[in-house]
Amino acid sequence: MGPFSLVKEFVLAHRRGYVLGILALLSVNVLQLLVPQVLKRFADSLQRGELTASLVGWYAAVLLLLAVLIACGRYAWRMQIMGASRLLEYTLRNRLYDHLQKMSARFFLEHKTGDLMAHATNDINAVRMALGTGLVMSIDAVFLTTFSLIIMLRTMDARLVALGLLPLPFLAASVQVFGRIIHRRFRRVQEAFAEITDRVQETMAGIRVIKSFVREEGEIQRFAELNRRYFHAHMRLVKAWGVLEPLTQFLSALSYLIVLWYGGTLVMLGQVTLGDFVAFNGYLALLALPMRAIGWVINHLQRGKASLERLWVLLSIRPDIQDHPDPVRVEELAGRIEVRDLTFTYPGSRVPALRNVSFTLEPGRTLAIVGRTGSGKTTLVHLLLRVWDPPPGTVFVDGHDVRRLPLATLRRHVGYVPQDNFLFSTTVARNVGFAGDFPPEAIREAAELARVREEVEALPHGFETVVGERGVSLSGGQKQRVAIARTLIK
């Protein structure tokens, strides 16, 4: 298993589309190889004085037919290969989002939001480009280069071919060197972009705090520094790309210059026919596109490889909190909670957050746990929910160790209102009914129990009022009571 296994499964599942697309692409390339042969015969007829109006019309009809077939073939491979690359992007993004939903609390403590967003945007887009346009240009380069060379070597003057293709080894060496440089520098660009994304996300989420402490200028300077790093990282990539692209174009143009000088001389001396000279230039033009595109292809293939490696590392991380291999088969829980001599220490810490805690709470009873800040009250609730795993044999629900209860069953039976009352940027009704598909009457009843119904109905659109990001349009107390209603209806 490795990074390429992320796309291998997809390619195998959609191999029919890829095969049809590649066949269409190869058909287009074959048709392109025929065009210089038509032009060769046209030029030879012209040189021999055999060209007539009807013959000109016949050549024009053949070229028009080739053009139509090439256009149809290009449409076919674009729909198959480019369509598959878009579907790959869709699949990878869904897989990444699904993977992130399964991660435990520890994962999000160790991975910044901005970095995760960069994975979901830039990295997946780079993989799509590599498996779409990059794949097409790679096949074009290999096929057109190989068969153009074969035809040229078999039908053209060997001296003209040798001189015309003289720049190719220098082009191959340049691409190999710059390809490695582009790969390294693109990874640094992605890392810098992740830092910027994380900073913007954090700043927008905490904009009220920033304004209340009058820290706008400080945040602007911090962002400017991150933006400067991203700019310099990208400029280093642009410099490498900026050298490779003109270099490939220069070497391609050099081939034309050699052919124009030496080939023209051979035509004037009668050693090469005008048709051969025209055909040679046609095949050289077919070679010129892959030659000029090699730098672009290498750039995107290296970007795709780097992004695929980053995605592989992320998707290889397994959740800390998972269902037990042999879970307890239970669908309903009565709610008897028992904690036995619980001692818990957070990973990386030496001081226990909880020490020797024991109690039993029968169904229908109420228990209030008080203590100073940092005494472990929230930790205790997180252990009950398995946001963090308690030590085996310490936390029980209905006599079952919570570590052996299915996560979905356990969490479905627990209502939890956290200290940070997070509301989604949608209506009040959807925030209250977040846990399922509840009728309006049930939503209003839950709001009544949480003592927030009257205040919600006083809003401009009542329960259909959009509360904004993180519930920004509501007061702190209102947000807390909406969160309570959300838990009560669950």
Descriptive account of the structure:
The chain is 69% helix and 4% strand. The model has no long low-confidence stretch (mean pLDDT 83). With 490 residues, the chain is mainly alpha-helical. The two termini are 41 Å apart. The chain has a 4-stranded antiparallel sheet with strand order 2-1-3-4, with helices on one face. Helix 5 (113-155) runs antiparallel to helix 7 and helix 7 packs parallel to helix 10 (274-315). It contains 16 helices and 4 strands.
Concise synopsis of the structure shown:
This protein is mainly alpha-helical.
Largest sheet: 4 strands, antiparallel
Shape: elongated
Poorly predicted ranges (pLDDT <50, ≥5 residues)? Answer: none
- Indicate the proportion of strand residues: under 5%
SSE pattern, N- to C-terminal = HHHHHHHHHHEEHEEHHHHH
Kindly provide the radius of gyration, computed on alpha-carbon positions and rounded to a whole number of angstroms. 33 Å
Structural class per helix/strand content? mainly alpha
